């Protein structure tokens, strides 16, 4: 294939970054200059060896020059395989023929494309997408503000149509689309987009609901007073460079002489080519304070700067969760700030306890209408529960979104679900990239402030030099005028004798040793200013100018005074335009929500079978029944399975699972799947990493791992030990050792206690020991413990319970009463439950305390076929009649559950057999029993009738 095209005088070189794109433009614009001649065989050959093709690239020829042909063709003998993907240009001189004077330039195509693309990318970075660190503005924003300044749209002048401003910007400075310019103008006027708006808008400029602004022919605008003081002051005093506009018809400022770091004040966001920026806004007062701190101490650390500027301040307010993301963003330039909307809880009806969540502020850049719509969709799809109604009551006075809750809904849980499922909690990803010295750079807080200070110092120096130059020029002229006034008669005679202005000026220069400007000033002076009063004015002006010159020279010679002046001007703006902080800072580790934050901390029943099946049920699953009834089934059980334990806890509790092998596992209570009463449950092996044949024998729900709490462990063979609860605060998934067991022994009972509590232990034969917890020595986890009680042959430990410290005084009183009145039946009591379904209460006063390793006292007289199943300390809460308000839940081996009042169980002596608690004709024996306090019981169950299985 042979191409003939226009030959530029300047040959293509590898350094030309626009070669690739220019070559394409030549192919498009000058296609009528090309002649293509190719035979079918050569064309097909080119297609087969497309990797060896050469691409023609040229540059636009200068006008009115003789164009020379350039031919580009494949030269395999010259390039060979190494020239793959390159561009070959053959440039023939005018006088040489087709042979001599050729110049061939080899250029790799991918290099040309890379350089051209990088040139385009840098053009987008510098000229469109990224703000300058010095004044914090992108070119379009800078041009809008300058155009409005040129139009005289100051804060004290009337508004003008936005279309007028957009037209001015397009026609003089920014040859792009009018939509882009108008959108930028609108954003600078929105108080929910910028912390300190730069433009005062009049009309519809959009809303936080993402409503579009009115057309630019309807809206009006003018500059804010802050913009004039912060960005446009001193613009005419040679403080910044002016560069030609796009058509070189006039000048525009390359920067605005900012007095405050506008980049941090209002933030910025933009997406360029391979780079983006996202800088949060800040409070004006805090920003000036941080700048002043850096001026006084250039070596200030980030922590010291954070004392003055603790974090971003978003225009829409909200709550910033934690400072970890802020620290990272200020240190490296990248960080993640979590923002929550500001909410409040209002009680709608005190009788029904219905409440409402009021959203008063939303996170930055969140669409309020979309947020309300999202919440409504979640409620409709039943993803968000507990909400009955939602409405937006926002008006000009402020934002107010009302979310009414259903009766019984927990506002904290619903609010956490809103944080997790909607934009009511969102994150702002800081990426503080700005243009510094013509290059994009990622900077931290101190680097940004220092870059601004360096720029501001240059602005103040240039302004001082400009004022000094003007003062010196004016002083020079004033001095000449004073000389002329002192020699007024000679000056007048000299002027009258001169035949022209030029000769008069020359004579004055020669006679009075004046400069050209001084002579011209004397000639231009009017007669009315020749009076003595006017001379005094010139003398005073000269003194003032000399003082001003002296101060300016002193300022330019002292960096300290320059920084002091910068601080004074920034503080002046702060005092005039300061507003209180809108975004609140909450000192938390992070704003991330976990599962526990959206789960109500409700009471729950845990049922565990001997074969390791566990299920979670609601506390009202089993209604209150009368003593002696059959009970209610706990649900299906596997073949040859029976109930092992049954307890009450809360969803947020951390449940400790103790196995028969002395190992302890941990899992949150809410992770146990909730199911109905009739369900079989979930195998514990799906929740815990149990080994083969390992059984869970005891479960302890823990709300808080307090330092003064202990776990008392009791084995089947009667070994007991006490371990600090802190040892179990962090348990790995495979479990840790809780107690060291001898062969044939197994861990059976674990209770939580403190040193002031008492331990009550009972054997299967009904022997009881009461001992203070302080008598039990605290040991480590990997120990066996000591002997708890001396067991007779064939006897084993049956149960253990704790007498809390709260009952100790009551216990002391009962012991005193027991000494005076041997037949006292006052509480607290020991509740005995036998395997055959019998039970009784015995006053604790009937038992004396004793040390460990004793036989104990008789607490229950059993028949030969009966044994003790469980023992409890009751009497924690008493009714008005002095009776117990607790309830006991009995579980048989077949899974039948009976829940009865403790007060219905009669108080008897230590040797009595007791009364029947649960009929077990077809239900085997009592497998486990659990105690429910009056606070745990559901009040609605007090009048419930008996329900048979």
UniProtKB/TrEMBL annotation:
SUPFAM superfamilies listed in its UniProt record: GyrA/ParC C-terminal domain-like, Type II DNA topoisomerase
Gene3D superfamilies for the chain: 3.30.1360.40, DNA gyrase/topoisomerase IV, subunit A, C-terminal, Topoisomerase II, domain 5, Topoisomerase, domain 3
Example GO biological process: DNA topological change
Gene Ontology molecular function: any one: DNA binding
Location, primary (coarse class): mitochondrion
EC number, UniProt record: 5.6.2.2
Region feature Disordered, mapped onto this chain: 54-101
GO CC term (a single one): chromosome
CDD domains from the UniProt entry: TOP4c
Subcellular location: Mitochondrion; Plastid, Chloroplast
Residue stretches making up the Topo IIA-type catalytic domain: 130-598
Superkingdom, taxonomy of origin: Eukaryota
Catalysed transformations (reactions): ATP-dependent breakage, passage and rejoining of double-stranded DNA
InterPro entries referenced in this protein's UniProt entry, alphabetically: GyrA, GyrA/parC_rep, Gyrase/topoIV_suA_C, Topo_IIA-like_dom_sf, Topo_IIA_A/C_ab, Topo_IIA_A_a_sf, Topo_IIA_dom_A, Type_II_DNA_Topoisomerases
NCBIfam families per record: gyrA, PRK05560.1, PRK05561.1
Protein name as catalogued: DNA gyrase subunit A, chloroplastic/mitochondrial
